[in-house]
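Troubleshooting log. The previous structure file for this entry was overwritten by mistake, so regenerating from the original sequence record. Sequence copied from the archived sheet and checked twice against the printout by T.R.
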Amino acid sequence: MKKAVVGILNRVPVVLIVIGEALVIYLATAVAKLAFTQLDPLYSVWYRVGFMAVLLLLWRRPWNKAKRAQLFHRDARSWGLVVLLGCSLVLMNTLFYVAISNMDMGIAVSIEFLGPLSVAVITGKSWRERVGIGIAAVGVVLLAGISLANPSGNGTFLYGLIAILIGGSMWGMYIITGRRVAAGGNSLDNLCIAVTIGWLVQSLFLGVPAVAHVVHPKADATWALEPGGSLKLLALLFVKILAGVAGAGEAQTDSTRFTDVAPGSWYAPYVAWAVEHGVTTGTSAATFAPDDTITREQMAAMIYRYASSAGVTLPKTRDAVRFSDASGFSGWAIEAIDALTRAGILDGVGAGRFAPQESATREQACKMLALLLQIIEEA
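Regenerated output below.
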């Protein structure tokens, strides 16, 4: 399957790939700006990079004996490239988040492309390539100039412009170092190590305040200030992650049959996507219960239904597990729990129990998603 996908991508025109990349960046940015209403940008990006590092570590497992010798026994120059790759990635993301909190999102995305455009000009092999890229770069500069002459954002546009220019240069640095690291082989494993190093460096400056601002949200936050706000968001965050994995992002509409999901709310498109793809059926024919926490059996059912809708055949790497509290399973969750435990995606909580009605944790969700992605990758 992986070879087939790579073969298709190799035949896709570069222009379409660039357009697709731009759409993904713009969608991700739009979602990120929603988080800024509850958490400051610098702290949001710390969680973003942190989750990226955790998922990569669970997926690539660089500590495996077969990988350790090649990944951790390297010379100083090789380590320097990996560290530079990780730090440039972290700075690129951090400054981009700072920029879009101080300037228009579309302008920020456009200006940031100066980084890769500069790399393309330097590495271009023909004068036609360089002229074309140069014209594009002039357009970006003019866009920045017009925006600077007519700034928005209560006088903070200049801060955003400085941040995005530095962030764009870090994007260029990331491309250059990424090529050199990838040339040595094991590109994904090296990226995993680089992201982890970059996040650890970032944590020295942002880790403690980022955690503190989630425990004690900022004064102008809304639903994050409610009791158990982070747990209430877990179910919706979980569905959003699945939507991103599927490449769908959002449904084409935010209208659902649920009376407690208001059209126009920030989470409505993701609920609509989940219903459309059979990932969730709600808590009843008319309700979704967006403020409720997600239970372990509900999470299992969502993962299983998503895998089925995506055409993924789950392997049977284990024997069936007989949980002592199986009598407490809901009928609609029995098949999902059995399939996921057999596939090694899901485990009990100890002492032979599954605890179907207990709330799922963020670490459990990350582990399940990472293992599911690994199965899809190896299919």
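The two ends are 6 Å apart (CA to CA). Archived copy saved in two places this time.
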